[in-house]
Amino acid sequence: MVDSVETRERRPLSRERVLRAAVELADREGVEAISLRRLGQELGVEAMAIYRHVRDKDDIVDGAVDAVVGEIEVGEPSEDWQAAMRALAMAARSVMLRHRWAPAVIVTRQNVGPAMLGQIERVLQILRRGGFTIDAAHHAVHVLGSRILGFTQDPFNDSAQASGPQPPPDEVVRAFAPYPAVAELAVAARHDGALGGCDDDFEFEFGLDLVLDGLDRRRASASD
Amino acid sequence: MVDSVETRERRPLSRERVLRAAVELADREGVEAISLRRLGQELGVEAMAIYRHVRDKDDIVDGAVDAVVGEIEVGEPSEDWQAAMRALAMAARSVMLRHRWAPAVIVTRQNVGPAMLGQIERVLQILRRGGFTIDAAHHAVHVLGSRILGFTQDPFNDSAQASGPQPPPDEVVRAFAPYPAVAELAVAARHDGALGGCDDDFEFEFGLDLVLDGLDRRRASASD
DNA sequence: AACATAGCCCTACGCCGTAAACTCGTCAAG
DNA sequence: CTTGACGAGTTTACGGCGTAGGGCTATGTT
Question: Residue by residue, what is the 3-state secondary structure of A54-104?
Fold first, then answer.
């Protein structure tokens, strides 16, 4: 006897499948359209079934965002760091244009998924290979992240803000094992700032002055 | 006979009072805490009473955001445009630090309230007085807006995206009457870009190159 | 005195996220 | 062949959400 329709066409659910559906739904109808009932409907399943594969709704949204960030394609980076960063930025932009809901969501959440960490790693490697000091690279990530790349809300926020008992350096290194440049930065960032994290005020003024300088240089340019 | 408690201590509601309560509530418990029932509770009133003074919930959130933007204090701007912009940016930052929920919300919404328009107007005046061409000022607003000032998602988006029948220039001018520099820009922006609005791609690359240039100049600096 | 209006309340509807208990097919151990 | 555990999915229920629609009352106007 043949399998019933239900049995045949219901491939088992999975985190992957849930997140993919969430991204597609957000692409079609905006982030607000993401709800468990709606997602279940989209997947041919009751809403609560989704909880087998996902912690809660935030986990879905964070996961969808990280999936989008993961779409940013990475070729072998050019030798010239500016060219490499430019290529990465344009790749990021084209992805964000495919998923217009994503940037706004990224800004809202401070959660940093693996794909995002991977991109930060890539940026740091490009910069360090281009001759940036750790500090300079750190500031560069802040400036690039928020506006240009559409990700980052620095990953060390927790250790920085909490100011409670900080994990020992080697534990930090282990947590960031697959991301050596990020780990290097994480350790370096603990030595200076009073709280061991980023000095937000400094990063803000760094970016501000960078922009003001750049604008001054282009002040009189009239071409569009 | 004395007034009942209800009659005496219930000053009439007003849009002002609702928005102020919304800002305070968001400051205390985050934007998500803003709900009509909760707001009513906060104001000593049933939820539905709020609808007499406000269109809907989005109107409340947009209004709260604009109220926050309106908190940015503006002294007489310095002669030096860089100093003036720096002062404005720092003022904006200090306000945003008082209302940490605001920047993320601003990014989400493309609604531009009067306070926000007023700030854009101020920025444009500073820039034009500093010798910027209209075009250069336009690009500068884009670069400054999203990261540094925490507002702007350009105000001409509608006319740019819609690409339907555009209102005649004089109508645009009238809509922006209290904001002469904005109006000037709005008219200028219609002459060039294929769609009569901003060329998003250009703005993106402009900001990108500005940042890359600036970073290159600071590449080797080691101080934090 | 008659009525209009403003300001607020009440009820109800269809959404939402999620806790808890259920069903049911699969499969290994006895 | 029975039994029992287990995992995936379902069902039900709860409290909260935005808001449409209508009702009540106090005040002001004529």
Answer: CCCHHHHHHHHHHHHHHCCCCCCCCCCHHHHHHHHHHHHHHHHHHCCCHHH
* A89 Cα to chain B: minimum distance (Å): 8
Measured from the CB, is A32 under 7 Å from any atom of strand D? no
Q: Does B140 touch chain A (CB under 8 A)?
A: yes
Judge whether B211 and A123 are in contact, CB under 8 Å. no
Nucleotides of C under 7 A from a protein CB: 7-11, 15-21, 26
Identify which of A31, A27, A164 has the alpha carbon closest to the alpha carbon of residue A97. A27
Query: Alpha-carbon distance B78 to B200, whole Å?
Result: 31
Domain ranges of chain A: 77-217
Query: For strand D, is any atom closer than 7 Å to the CB of B58?
Result: yes
CA-nearest of A106, A76, A104, A102 to A88 is: A76
**Which residue, among A89, A50, A95, has the nearest Cα to A72 in the 3D structure?**
A95
Torsion B118-B122-B128-B132 (CA) sign: negative
Whole-angstrom distance, CA of residue A186 vs CA of residue A191: 9
Locate the chain A residue with the closest alpha carbon to B104: A108
Contact A99, A67 (CB under 8 A): no
Q: Name the token pair of A194.
A: 């009073």
The one-digit pLDDT tens for each residue of chain A (224 residues) are: 333 333 334 577 899 999 999 999 999 999 999 999 999 999 999 999 999 999 999 999 999 999 999 999 988 889 999 999 889 988 988 999 899 999 888 888 878 888 988 888 888 899 899 988 888 888 888 777 766 655 544 434 433 333 445 566 666 667 777 777 877 777 776 665 544 566 777 777 787 788 788 888 877 654 44
Q: What is the pLDDT of residues B10-66, one digit of tens each?
A: 567 899 999 999 999 999 999 999 999 999 999 999 999 999 999 999 999 999 999
Q: Is the CB of B16 under 7 A from strand C?
A: no
CATH entry 1.10.8 includes domain A77-217: no
The correct answer on CATH 3.30.420 for the domain covering B81-217 is no
A83 contacts chain B (CB < 8 A):
no
Measure, in angstroms, how far nucleotide C27 C1' is from residue A7 CA.
18
Residue B58 is encoded by which pair of tokens?
């989005």
Range 99-128 of B in CB contact (< 8 A) with A: 103-104, 107-108
Report which DSSP code applies to B145.
I
Nearest nucleotide to A11, CA against C1' atoms? D8
Nearest nt (C1') to B46 (CA)? C9
